[in-house]
Amino acid sequence: MDMLIRAQNGDEEAFTSLVLQYQNPVYNLCYRMLGNAQEAEDAAQETFWRAYQAIRRYDRNRSFATWLLSIAAHYCIDQQRKKRITTMEIEDWMEEVIPDHTPEPEKQIRENEERQSIQSLLSSLNPQDRAAVILRYWYECSEEEISQALQLSVSAVKSRLHRARLRLAQQYQSQQYAMTERIRDESPAF
């Protein structure tokens, strides 16, 4: 909190410390929203620039992380709109895949495919639904915090999350079915 107060009073070193503290969560949100590392990096930089410009107006009664992530989410939503991208249980397959640097090629390939699959599924959602899902399941924001971050009512957040879970489950099942069919078609007949 002291760092935040100093940053609000114009201390650039304090703001730099906040950037260092929050750069990974902001980048990760941007990457999940945009699906491209370079675009995510640009979006994260823009997020911090916007936060820097607005830091004096930040309300300390609100969670700083939620405020910062909402800036990132809104920026990413705007970027997606500009690009005109159309876009089982979620808890079971949306766990963060933590890279293991042990040289196990099969495991690394499987983890990479899993990350790509999750990114593909997220890309099927509209930008606000995607933001709600990411904030809920990766950042464990409450429905109230998501409501504040996305400027929606709590009931709208609940509805978006429910609709997104259904869509993701349908997409996941379709992916699994397609993969099963592809494996069956590629298998030699005996």
TrEMBL record:
Pfam families: Sigma70_r2, Sigma70_r4_2
Gene3D superfamilies in UniProt: 1.10.1740.10, Winged helix-like DNA-binding domain superfamily/Winged helix DNA-binding domain
Residue ranges of every copy of the RNA polymerase sigma-70 region domain listed in the record: 18-84
GO annotation terms (biological process): DNA-templated transcription initiation
One MF term in the entry's GO annotations: DNA binding
RNA polymerase sigma factor 70 region 4 type domain span: 116-168
Domain of life of the organism encoding this protein: Bacteria
InterPro entries, A to Z: RNA_pol_sigma-70-like, RNA_pol_sigma-70_dom, RNA_pol_sigma70_r2, RNA_pol_sigma70_r4_t2, RNA_pol_sigma_r2, RNA_pol_sigma_r3/r4-like, WH-like_DNA-bd_sf
Key words of the record: Sigma factor, Transcription, Transcription regulation
Family classification: Belongs to the sigma-70 factor family. ECF subfamily.
Protein name per Swiss-Prot or TrEMBL: Sigma-70 family RNA polymerase sigma factor
Organism name: Bellilinea caldifistulae
